[in-house]
Amino acid sequence: MVTKVTKDIIRDFLFADDCVFNAVSEADMQCSVDMFSSDCSNFGLTISTKKTEVLHQPAPGKPYVEPDITVNGQRLNTVNRFTYLGSTLSQNVTIDDEVNVRIARASSTFGRLYPNVWNRRGITTQTKLKVYRAVVLPTLLYACETWTVYQRHARKLNHHFHTTSLRKILGIKWQDKVPDTEVLARADLPSITTILMQSQLRWAGHS
């Protein structure tokens, strides 16, 4: 049996006024940038070189060589990571930076809710957990459907943030020696690992 597989290479990602170019070589990238710059000029548009960055992700085992990409003779700034549509893309092609950013943002969101939600005695625990599910978890797991998650990521997301936050909501202290599995059971919430698996399966078309 012979199976024919087609392959399309996506070279640009466009959303509103944001644009990302993808290339397999420095020469290809420069060519794409030159064509884009020319098209912009035809419509009276100008590329902001201050807001335009270059991220080089070398293949595993290959040395890093800083690329030299220019727009109208002006060299663009090369970075180790940048954010596109809320997600952090890194030079080392891992989600380490993205996980750290998501935890930081979720922690900030959780902290801002202390005076009006977590510390409010008039709000039931069930309502607090609903707020956590509706506000904090989406901040933590934004775009998680596309992540390649390793144990170190799951451990950090689940133990360092998820169950720690739930302990605060439920009023469980560390000296109570309540295991994480019991914390999740009391909150009636799955672990981050389970949530990630469910999200990625749905994104892949499995209900």
Automatic annotation (TrEMBL):
- According to UniProt, the name of this protein is Reverse transcriptase domain-containing protein
Against InterPro entries, the record matches this protein to:
RT_dom
Spell out the PROSITE patterns in the cross-references: RT_POL (PS50878)
Q: Where's the Reverse transcriptase domain?
A: 1-89
Q: Mind giving the lineage of the organism this protein is from?
A: Eukaryota, Metazoa, Spiralia, Lophotrochozoa, Mollusca
